[in-house]
Each structure stands twice: as C-alpha cells, then as structure tokens.
Amino acid sequence: MANPVGEDSWLAYVEERRPADLEERVKVVELFKKAIGAEPGSLKIWLAYCEYFWSLFNDCQNPEAGWSEEEQQLGRELFSFELALSLWSEGYEAIKYRLNDSHEFWNRWVSIEQEQLARSRNPVGVRRITHLFRDRLQIPHATWDETSQMFSSFLSTYNNAAYESEFKEVTAAAQPAKDAYNDRERRELELNKLARSGDEQAYKTALRDYLDWEIIQTTSPRNHPKDPVLAITLALALFSRALTGALAFEHDIWMNYMVYLSTLRDLAPSHMPLPDSLNVLQRATSHCPWSGDLWSRYILNAEEAGWAFHDVEAIKHAATNAKALDKNGMTGVIDMYAAWCGYLKRTAMNPNAPDDAVDIADVGLLAALEDVQLWGERLYKEEYRGDPNYRLERILIQYLTEKKGEVEEARNIWKNLADKALFANSYDFWLNYYLWEMMIYAARPRQRSPTPATPANGVKPVRVPAHATDVLLRALQTKGLDWPERVMEVCHQHCNDYEQPPTLRRALDTIHKTRRGIEKRRARERAEAESAYAAQAQAAQQAAAAEVVDVSMSESPSGSKRKRADTMEEATTAITNKRPKNADVNGTDAAASDQSLKRDRENTSIMVRNLPPDVTQTALKKYFRDYGHILNLTTKKEADGSTTSALIEFESPEEMRSALLRDQKYLGESQISVKPGAGLTIYVANYPPTADEEYIRTLFKDCGEVFSIRFPSLRFNTHRRFCYISFSDPESAAKATRLDGKVLEGKFHLLSKYSNPTGKKRREGAVAEGRELRIKNLDFKSSEDDLRVLFSRYGKVESINLLKNLKGQNRGTAFAVMETKEQAEKAAELDKTKLGSNIIEVELSKESNYKPTASTKTGSHSAASSPAPSTDADATMATDDSGPSGREIQARSMAILDLPDTVNDARVRALAEKHGDIVKVVLRPDHQGAIIEYANVATVGKAMMALNGFEIDAGKKIRVGSVEELFKTKAEKPGNKLMKPPMAIRRPVASGQKPKQRAGLGYGGGAKTEANGDGADTGSTPKSNADFKAMFLAGKQ
C-alpha cells in the first residue's frame, strides 16, 4: 500500500492500528517515525506521537496496564523516561516557531516536566524547567502573556528568592520575540478569525498573503529586519505550517517555497541552517504528483547535488508512475520529460562524464520523445498534435548538433516539425529554425587549401547560407502563418546580407507575391465579415418589422430595464411561474412549455447509493429499465472513490415507486441503496448575474454535499436567472433553504426554496396587473408632458416612458402606467384618436417571455457602438452621422462560438472585459454564441488569443471566430439520449414499384401555384431592405 499523504491521512492511518502486544506497539512507533519524516512540521502528528510514547512509558511502569511481565521489562528499555522526555524536546524544536498553536505542544510538555518535579523537588529539575521557560519566552508565540504568567507561578513556588532578577532578565531578553509577534499579530488574528468562521477559501487567501509578506520582509533589499535570522526562521516556520495544513496540496505554494529556499542560499547568514531542498522536493512531489514543475525542479536539484544516474532515474520513474501526472493535461508530463532530457543532455556533454553517458543519452532522448507521443495519444487519441514549444525536440537537436556533430540528423528533425501545421503556422518556429541554420553556417570553417583549385570557368564559388534561405522561403509558402510580415522582413534582410543577386531577386518576387496574397485574403475576410454584419442588421430589421404589432417587453418600462432595478420581482416571478405565457410567439414552444410543466422531477426521481465505482450509465439503464422509462440519469463518484451515487429520473411517479423495489439489492458485488429523490432539490434565483456553477457550489458548500446543478436554457428567454440544486441528502437541502433572503454583494436578495413545479403565483408589476398601456404611431414632436396631460384625464399617471433613438429623437412608441387597472382600461379608449398630427394607437401591454437575444452596452462607449435594431421604421432608417461605420464596427468585433445556452450575457461580459473595454455584448443562444464589440481594434486580437479554448463550464470549451461564422452556426438541438427511439414504419408497396422517398420536415414536394393562377413564386426572390420598409409602412396604415 502506498504511504498516506497529509497529516490527517497519516493520523487516520496510525489510528487504524490497534496494537495488542509489544511488537505491534513498536510497529506503531515506527509508523509515527515515518509520519514525522513525511510531515516534519506537523504539530498534530508530533503531539500524537509524543502522547503515544508517553502512554507507553506509563503503561510499562504500571502492572495494571495489562502487559505481561516480559513485555513490561522490555518496554522499560524501549520506552524509557529519558527517551520520552527527549522525544518531547525533539518535537518542540520542530514546531516551536509556529506562532499560532505551538503553545498547545509546549503547555503539555511543560506540564509533564512540572509533574515530575513536583514528585522530586530537586534543584536540577528547577534549573531545567527554568531554562525551558527562559527559552520559550524568547520565542515569538501567540500566548506569550500566559506563558509569562506560568513562569511567574513557577518561580513563586520553586525559586521565590530569585523571582525579580529572573523576571527582569527574561523580560529584557524576550523583547525581540515580542516585537516580532507584534509585527505579525494582525495577520495571525485575521487567520484565527477566518478559521473559526469556517471560510476555507478566505483562510487560504489570507495565508497566501501572509506568506508573500514574509518573503518580502526577508528578501527585499528595502527591508532590513533587526534580527535577520529570526525573520527568516519565522518565514520558514510559516511555510512549514501552511504546507502541513491548509495549503498542503497547492503546488504553487510548494514552488514558492523552493524558490524562497534557493534565494536564501545567497542571502541567509552562512551559519544559519536551511531545510534540505531535496527532502522538501520529495515531500512536494508526494503531495502534488501532478505538478511537472516540481518534478523538474526535483531532477534539477538532484543533478546539482551530484546524485548518481540511477538515483536521478528513480525520480523520473516515480514521476511516470504517478497516476496524477497528466491530471492537468500534457503540461506536467512534458515539463517533467523536458527536465529529464535536459539532464541527459548536460550529462553527456560534460567533459568529465562517465564513458556510458553518451550511450545513455542516445537511447534516453529518443525514448523520451516516443514516451511523450504515446502518452499524448493515449490521453487525447488522434487529437494530440504535440508540444507547441517542441521542447524535447529542441534538446535533441542541440545534442545532435553540439555533441554528436550529426547536422543532417538534426536538420531532419526540423524538417519533420515543419511538416506539421502546429509548428508551421508559427513564425516563432521558423525564426528558430532559421537561426539554427545560420549557426550551422557560421560554425563551419571556410575551405582553406595551400594550393586552391582553379575553377573550370574561371569563377570562384561564393559561400552562402542556402539552407537558411530555403527555410525563410518555405515559411513564406505557409498559408496559415500567424505573422507573415515578420518573416518577410527577416527574409528580405537576410537575402540582402548574404545572397547573390539572382537569389535576392527571386526572394523579392516571392515576398511581393506573398504580400499581395495576404492583402487579398484579408480584404476578402473583411468583406465577408462586413457582409455577415450586414446580414445581421437585416435580420434584426426583419425581426423588428415582424413584431411591430407586439413590441417586446425589453422596450417596456416594466420590462428588463425596470427588472434590473428590482431583481427580487424577477426572482419571485421566475419561481412561481416557470412556463412562458406568450403563446402567440410560437405555438410549438407553448406546447413544449406545458409539457415541461407536467415534468415533476422531484417526485419522479430516485437516489441510488453504494454503486460500484466503475459503474456505467448503460449498466444502470439496463438495471432499472424493467421499472419504467428513464428520462435523465446523473452519476457522481464519491470523494473517497470507493462508490458511486446516481440520481435517476423516471417518466412518472408510479415508475419511480416501483424502482424502489431495488433497495438493498445487489448490483455486482455492491449492495445498493435506493431512496426517493423528494426533498433533495431546491430552486435558487436572484443570485448575481455573473454567477457560475463554481460560485453556486461555493455559496452552498456549508449546507452539505451538492450532487448536481441544473441551469435553464436561455434559447427562448435570455433573461432567465435561476437554477436547480440537487443535494445528496434532505438535511442539506433543508439547510440550503435557510439561505433564502440572504443578501449577496449588498444588493441581491437570494431566493432559495424547495422546488415545486405545481406552485403558482400571479405575476406582479404593471403589465401583469393590466395597468400599463402601449402607445404607437406618435407624432415625433410629441413629448412626455403631452402624453401625461392626455392620460391624466382618466386617472393618476404613475410613469411615462417615451422610447428614443441614439440621437435622442422620439421613436413613435411610448408606455404609460396608470395607478389602477380600471383607469388603464378607460384610458385605452384613446385608441384611434388624434394627438398632434398623427392618429395614435393605444392598447394594454401584453406579457412576453420570449427574449431570444440579450444586448448590453457600456455607457461610456454607447455612442461608439452600433445602433440597436428599432421597431420604428423612420428611426431605423435615420443613421447617426457621428457613429462608426460598419467596417469599423466589424474590425473591433468578434464572436464567441460553442457557447452553452445556459451562459448569460453577464458572464460573457465578465469574461471578455478582462482583456479590454467593451462597447457592447450581444448574446445569441440561437446560434450557440455571442458577439462582443470592443472599444478598440487592438483589443480584439488579444482577446481572441486569450479566450480561444477557454473552459467556461466543466468540459465545455469555447471557440472564437468572426460574426459571419457565428451566424452560420445553428442552435444546438435539444435532445435526450435516454429518450425512447422512434419506431420506423415500413408500408408495403405495389410490386415493381420503388418505395416513395419521404422528404424531410419542412420540405415541399413541389411548387404551389397561387390562387390567381399565374404560378409566380413570390417567395423565390429574397426581400430587400426597401421591401421590408414598404411592408412596415403598409402595416401602419
């Protein structure tokens, strides 16, 4: 069995031992020694070890302990009084600089010493304990005052005559220790407060800041501690405390510790002992076996320490045998192998190396390349392309070039890399290749002969770097090169400096052709992007014209703008009424909503526990399929990895109840538990818009184990902000409901209630209460005051919202909110009356849940953004002369692709604005993405490089691309792999006839002629903007 890792694991491992005889007790002592070797700074382990050893000393002295006479006699030799006190002293030396809790160990030790002195009362014991107190009071610790009081009581009892002199001397000597603790007291108190609150993440953050502060105090040239040795000792003790506690499995803290130790070797006083870096690295790699940085550092330090080859090789084997090395992908694997190959290369190139060093390097370097390739293919299958930085290949090239002199072999490696798009598209690769060729050219001596041969044609050959020229010309032929301008510049300069006129001429021709091709390609890409942007604008205009009779709620004063100011109303509405109310938007969607309302997950689900750890969903479906149809199945492996749990949803409550018959039955060798899933799921809403799954898990972590989190699809309503959280047990769900009403970030009142699909509550707000009126076809000169005067005849007017365009002009539409529903119904009689020069239309506003897109703008950049689509024709056709052109907007816009339809625009904005100022974000879940318009063009490239491949949700990585590419992407079709497959129906056909092919959904078998009989296909020609404007104007008449 592998050794435990971490102080808690070691203690649990030792506590499992129940020694029944002396031999078993000795084995437990040996286990404690191993634990101390693995965690030398752990107060918990030292205290448990010393307490256990002290109990053995007492038991072997006590006949009533149950030991045999022989065991007692041997025990007195093995667990003597001197060894016990020596162990307490050794443990104290290891942990005495732990400022926060070293007193726990000290107090126990000194109490044992005082108990022994109370029996003997000899002067030697008094001097010994006095010395212990003197030493303790000169060590900084949190309970210095309590220790001083203990010393005072001790002197009063055993040495009252020397009380004043002793205390005066000790107080003076302890002043540096008190000053050192005072400098750190604020940070220690903060850590204690966070530890008591149970906020683990905040505790870790504060501890990290504390470590950084200690490093600065001891390494920065601006800081000059009074006692450098004490300052460094306290910093090392804090690292030891962190790495045996809260940060034991944080690889970056281990790396910080190693760098700090490396720095101290040059800064610390020569007489000050420092921890052995190799021992630290051995512990670091056992705690964080996935860290390639730590493994590579381990190999480097072993090489620097002069370890033998087989010892360094043992480190490499330990790394490859660590199952977690590829936990974060191939990065850790390549880092470790790069360190190993660097070691092999340096050893072989060392003139004092053993004879077999070159042979080992020949085999080891090639084997490492092969191992990494196989590892990558095993991890990523055919998607693995190699290391983008080709580190192992560069080490092998250097070795072949400088040690073996095999230039052609090294050149073949460069050529093989150049054949792969991963490297060929990088200008950095080609420049490195070129520089290597130039190094080879410069390293080869000129041909010198005492009797040079005369050429047949009388012309002496000129020596030129032909291989380097070929590299640059080949780079220019790569179509996907990321920075061709840089390569063209280098090629031009190189040929000018080294090549003959014919070659220079051909190179200039190639550069000219390449530049023209790049310009054409980029012009084509710009045109395509502009076309896509125009198509987007046209689609928006079409949507606006089609919905002119029903302005969306986002333009209503009780719509999204008002909801952002009153988020509790949005949350309450969402929980009490989950299905869309606007059946006019899409009949199919309304029907689907009715169906989803009938789906009662809370009463049709079961929780299955104690499943085998390697159970598959297929096996679970087969196991439960006799009890009903499974709609959804979610599995989760338990933290210890020994079992798996599953939450299974059936089609009806009856099927769920029948599946309970499987309770306490066996699946393989595991006896499973099957319980109803009722009371496990809560409905959560009104959290911050930028919250993701990690935020939700952190918010509810103190309630219990979160089994799964479901976010809703935003495809038909981008303003939905709620989720369902399923807990592993009802008690955790009950605790989660107590967070209902909690204020987040000072303004969001969290809603956390049991999920209840049948719960209904009437919507609130002016629209739901029938108090809001929509006024259309307004005269563009009409003002809010005009409308207020007009509608005040029918009652009290609460608000008037007159929609305006970017220029501040009236768009011809407004919303009025009356005090009561009756007043609003009376005011609706103003329909078809004249206001100014126009006949206005007045009607009660209708609720709408259909919001397929979301658009947010930054106030400081709103004037520079593209105008939002308007439902008013005249306002839409009026352009803002001061606004940017379509080409400018396209140049600074980008699209995010493969965006899950559960991610809202707030999360997209939070992710994108890290890279620059944003003008506008448009969420398009109907195309699986979003459009981001930045304030300047330079930001777009940086953002695209940073966001491409970013994992926005677990297992879901986004891509970046153009707006045109976004609109070519269709929405992901909702589907359920667990749904029943449709049955194929085959009908017999007449003999000799072929079965008629059935066309797909939406496909017409033939063109239909119009009723007028002219057969014209009115839908064959796409409508232009003018056509849609004419349709719009016709609809207003």
From TrEMBL:
The keyword Repeat applies. Residues 551-600, 850-887, 987-1026 are annotated as: Disordered. Keywords: mRNA processing, mRNA splicing, Nucleus, Repeat, RNA-binding. Residues 862-881 have a biased composition (Low complexity). GO terms for molecular function: RNA binding. This is U4/U6 snRNA-associated-splicing factor PRP24. Functions as a recycling factor of the spliceosome, a machinery that forms on each precursor-messenger RNA (pre-mRNA) and catalyzes the removal of introns. Chaperones the re-annealing of U4 and U6 snRNAs (small nuclear RNAs) released from previous rounds of splicing, an initial step in reforming the U4/U6-U5 tri-snRNP (small nuclear ribonucleoprotein) that can reassemble into another spliceosome complex; this step involves binding U6 and facilitating the unwinding of the U6 internal stem loop, followed by base-pairing of U6 to U4. It comes from the Eukaryota. The keyword Cell membrane does not apply. InterPro entries: HAT, Nucleotide-bd_a/b_plait_sf, Prp24_RRM1, RBD_domain_sf, RRM_dom, RRM_occluded, TPR-like_helical_dom_sf. It holds the Pfam family RRM_1. Residues 604-679, 680-747, 771-847, 892-965 form the RRM domain. Residues 850-861 have a biased composition (Polar residues). One of its GO terms (biological process) is mRNA processing. It is found in: Nucleus. One of its GO terms (cellular component) is U6 snRNP. Its main location: nucleus. PROSITE patterns: RRM.
